[in-house]
């Protein structure tokens, strides 16, 4: 399998060995509910891990939870609750939503608050090595000492320097130096004792501490949204490689593109986001996963209503075909042509995902397979079962459940009534019943097997 490494800007091969592949993905800062921009990242990495495991790669997937942050403290103060208790509730909410999105591949979630002792130890080591220094406000990383800072994001620090107008801590040696430890007053909500006084960690050091505890200071894959490249991931590299004295910190860096809304990055700070909770009140989780995976993970994805409608139509088309297969009851062995089509489909599906997780092409291969099968006449029960299994296996890797519900009795009665009207050629009344059925979120297809009904449960309500 080949994946695009953001640092080298080229494809790198993942070699299958007996060793466990270690994947760290930057999780949420839990001050608000997950929005669909976040979901894009987490759905992609869930799909990546599902695929790797289906190909018998051994992989350990760890995700951090930032439960110490200024935004969390500010939100908790507004709500007049303890920040740590607020973070616990928000973390629970995040995991619940992830489960609803069928994100099930994460092996371990780790809270930043659980690694304070490691953070303090790392800061001590960085000071001893000359990479960090103390000021009256905290401890900072000395960016100028790490000569590779900016390589991942391609940033020219000197060009950026002129754009900085506000200096938050005049005791800092350089505007780009970032906080490893923030000193706080004893009465502040979240603080821990340290050699530099009471305080709390900076954002970047939290992930480096978690990495060292569970994976060490060198491992395989690190992922997150493209907005984390600078400064967060740059800072992680600087910290880890300064601590270990070794390169690379991570073999492959993976970044998902922005999800944009009205030509702006969807973000909490811009208040132009749609929460996953709100989305799921209207639509099935399959719809969001399909939207995300219909686009290349590295490209920007422009959010609009037509994306939703197109995805529902595509999902309904696949589902209708699966329902159609259940009507095939003839006896006999599996057609050789069908075996060949299944083998070809499985090969294409795997090949597309091996090519830097080309999910748009992967989804297209499902429809190509369905079109090929529809051209084959006299499909028997065994063949239909094999076809369904191939499609189900592919959907499972994509995390799409495609649940098929039983048709309610009132809908069956309408179908029977419509069939009688069609027999007596009263097509006007038959069409009215079709519209009545479709208004109840059902798709009706007239086939050589008779009328086939598919519930459009991709829309809620």
From TrEMBL:
The keyword Metal-binding applies. ATP binds at residue 268. Gene3D superfamilies: Cysteine-tRNA ligase, C-terminal anti-codon recognition domain, HUPs. Its cofactor is Zn(2+). GO terms for cellular component: cytoplasm. Keywords: Aminoacyl-tRNA synthetase, ATP-binding, Cytoplasm, Ligase, Metal-binding, Nucleotide-binding, Protein biosynthesis, Zinc. CDD domains: CysRS_core. HAMAP family: Cys_tRNA_synth. Belongs to the class-I aminoacyl-tRNA synthetase family. PANTHER family: CYSTEINE--TRNA LIGASE, CYTOPLASMIC, CYSTEINYL-TRNA SYNTHETASE. This is Cysteine--tRNA ligase. It comes from Candidatus Liptonbacteria bacterium CG11_big_fil_rev_8_21_14_0_20_35_14.
């Amino acid at each position: 399998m080949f994946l695009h490494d953001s640092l080298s800007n080229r494809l790198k091969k993942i070699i299958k060995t007996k060793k466990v592949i270690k994947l760290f993905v930057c999780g949420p800062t839990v001050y608000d509910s997950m929005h669909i921009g976040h979901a894009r990242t987490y759905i992609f990495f869930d799909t990546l891990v599902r695929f790797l495991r289906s190909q018998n790669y051994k992989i350990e997937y760890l995700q951090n939870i930032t439960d110490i942050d200024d935004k969390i403290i500010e939100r908790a103060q507004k709500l007049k609750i303890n920040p740590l208790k607020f973070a616990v509730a928000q973390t629970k909410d995040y995991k619940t939503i992830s489960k609803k999105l069928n994100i099930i591949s994460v092996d371990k979630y780790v809270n930043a608050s659980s690694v304070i002792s490691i953070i303090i130890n790392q800061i001590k080591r960085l000071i001893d090595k000359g990479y960090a220094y103390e000021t009256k406000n905290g401890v900072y990383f000395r960016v100028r000492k790490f000569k590779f800072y900016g390589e991942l994001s391609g940033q020219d620090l000197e060009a950026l320097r002129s754009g900085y107008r506000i200096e938050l801590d005049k005791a800092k040696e350089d505007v780009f130096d970032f906080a490893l430890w923030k000193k706080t007053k004893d009465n502040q909500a979240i603080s821990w004792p340290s050699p530099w006084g009471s305080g709390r960690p900076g954002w970047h050091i939290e992930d480096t501490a978690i990495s060292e505890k569970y994976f060490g200071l060198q491992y395989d894959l690190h992922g997150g949204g493209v907005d984390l490249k600078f400064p967060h991931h740059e800072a992680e590299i600087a910290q880890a490689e300064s601590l270990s004295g070794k390169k690379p910190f991570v073999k492959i860096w993976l970044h998902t593109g922005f999800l944009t809304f009205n030509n702006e990055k969807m973000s909490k700070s811009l208040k132009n986001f749609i929460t996953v909770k709100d989305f799921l009140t209207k639509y099935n989780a399959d719809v969001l996963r399909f939207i995300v995976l219909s686009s290349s993970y590295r490209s920007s994805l422009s959010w609009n209503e037509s994306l939703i409608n197109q995805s529902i139509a595509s999902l309904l088309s696949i589902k209708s075909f699966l329902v159609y297969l259940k009507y095939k009851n003839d006896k006999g062995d599996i057609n050789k042509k069908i075996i060949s089509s299944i083998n070809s489909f499985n090969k294409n599906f795997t090949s597309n995902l091996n090519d830097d997780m080309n999910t748009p092409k992967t989804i297209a291969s499902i429809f190509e397979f369905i079109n090929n099968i529809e051209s084959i006449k006299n499909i028997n029960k065994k063949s239909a079962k094999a076809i369904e299994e191939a499609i189900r296996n592919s959907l499972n890797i994509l995390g799409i459940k495609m649940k098929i519900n039983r048709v309610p009795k009132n809908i069956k009665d309408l179908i029977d009534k419509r069939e009688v009207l069609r027999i007596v050629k009263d097509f006007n009344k038959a069409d009215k019943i079709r519209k009545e059925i479709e208004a109840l979120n059902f798709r009706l297809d007239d086939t050589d097997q008779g009328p086939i009904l598919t519930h459009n449960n991709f829309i809620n309500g």
